[in-house]
Structures are given as structure tokens and as C-alpha cells.
Amino acid sequence: MDKLKGMLKISERDKKLLVVVLAVLIMALAYFFGFQNLSDQVDTLSTKKTTLETTQRDLKEKNNNKQKYVNDTMNYLKQYDNLLDRYAAGSTQPNSIDFFKSDTAFSYSSMFL
């Protein structure tokens, strides 16, 4: 038993060495488990930020031109309604083809595709 107690006694120098090794080990574990995870999250968030900034610029541009888009849509709807008003609902296929040939920019060959 005395031999065991003699083997368990650690000198002051060895205790200081163990404290330094444990401190280095704790810092290494903190780096591997803490800092690397945070670094990966920073990279992911910065990628998302870039994507969101691009989307924001696009939406701001669309919002600045909102009235133009609304006016264009209303103009196209009016043109569409005018075209439909000139087209009779009970027309036959030959009459419909003649209508599109004479009144629109469609080519005759594109109707049969």
C-alpha cells in the first residue's frame, strides 16, 4: 500500500504540466466544437444574406415600376377584350382561321402546328 501512495504522489512541476496540457486540451475542444460550428453558420448566413439582398433589389425595382406594370396589364386586358368582342362565339373553324389571318399577326402556317 505504501508503494501505491508513493506512485500517486505528483511533483509540483508535473502538476503544472498537467494544468497546461488540460488548458490546451480545453481550448482545442472549444475550437473544434464551438468555433468551427459558428464559422460554418456564419458562412451559411452570409450566403443567405447575399441571396436576400439580391431578391430585395429585384423587388424594389419591381415596386418602383409597379404603376407601369399595372397600366400595361390594363392596356393588354383592354386589347384582349376588344379582340374577343370582334370574334363571334358561334363561328366555324374556317371563319375563325380567316379571322386570325386578317386581324392578327399570326402566320397561317403556325395555326396548324
Short account of what is shown:
The chain has 113 residues and is mainly α. The protein is built from 4 helices and no strands.
Write the SSE topology.
Layout: H1 2-8, H2 12-64, H3 66-86, H4 93-103
What do you see in this structure?
This protein is 81% helix and 0% strand. It is mainly α and 113 residues long. The longest helix has 53 residues, at 12-64. The chain starts with a helix and ends in a 10-residue tail after the last helix.
The structure class reads mainly alpha
Give the strand tally. Answer: 0
- Assign a percent range to the helix content: over 70%
Approximately how much beta-strand content do the residues carry?
A: under 5%
Largest sheet: none
Global shape? rod-shaped
Rg over CA atoms: 39 Å
Distance between the termini: 101 Å
- Write the element-wise H/E pattern from the N-terminal end onward: HHHH
The number of distinct helices, counting runs of at least 4 residues, comes to 4
Low-confidence stretches: none
**How confident overall, as mean pLDDT?**
81
